[in-house]
Write the structure tokens for this entry.
Amino acid sequence: MTGISADSARILGVFGGTFDPVHCGHVAVADALMRALPLSRIVFVPAARPPHRPAPSAGARDRLAMLRLALASDQRFVIDETEYEREGPSYMVDTLAILRAHHAQPLALILGMDAFVSLPAWHRWRRILGLAHVVIVSRPGLDGTLPAWVRPRLAGRAETLLTADSGRAFLFTASARPESATALREGLADGTAPASWLPDGVPDYIEAHGLYRRSSRNDES
Ligand code: ATP
């Protein structure tokens, strides 16, 4: 993940998450965004120690391994593991600053609507808007009304994001996916998880490592 990208005419997507576990909704949203927006690639950023939520159920290494399995066959997607190399909480603002230093193209932070509405609670969130655009992805069941602070930043067309380095917002409503990691964890614990929600290879990994059973616990954090 170092070096100036040759693809500076397009935007680098940044998709952060806990991925506890990664599900088909994550992959489908990333695929839809690649098709609809002027993105060169999407960098997935698994949070080693997510600061804004309860401790994940699966350990950081297991979540990373599942993400690798889910993305292995698609060269449009890469994984940035720098949050695993840093001490302390995994702040997105720090990751974006590192990506900013290594890439000449604009960055777009991809956030589901639930994550977007919590953005003002994130560490140095205004600095995040100085480092990247935000792409807000609708989620079923969540009201699409955007907070007033973001409205002056909204771009009507995705191409508008190319005219500035950061600070614009784009609302993406074309891919409403039902998957949620919370629902998956509950379903995996009681045997009712929809198999179609998990990318190839991930169910076998979960089974082999005994993850998300009622008795399993994350002993890495
Ligand atoms: P949890 O239920 O544990 O919060 P999650 O399904 O939201 O998990 P995360 O790893 O927390 O998964 O999500 C990473 C990012 O992906 C967040 O910005 C989240 O809003 C977004 N996201 C997750 N699932 C979807 C979905 N089905 N549609 C759109 N965005 C999604």
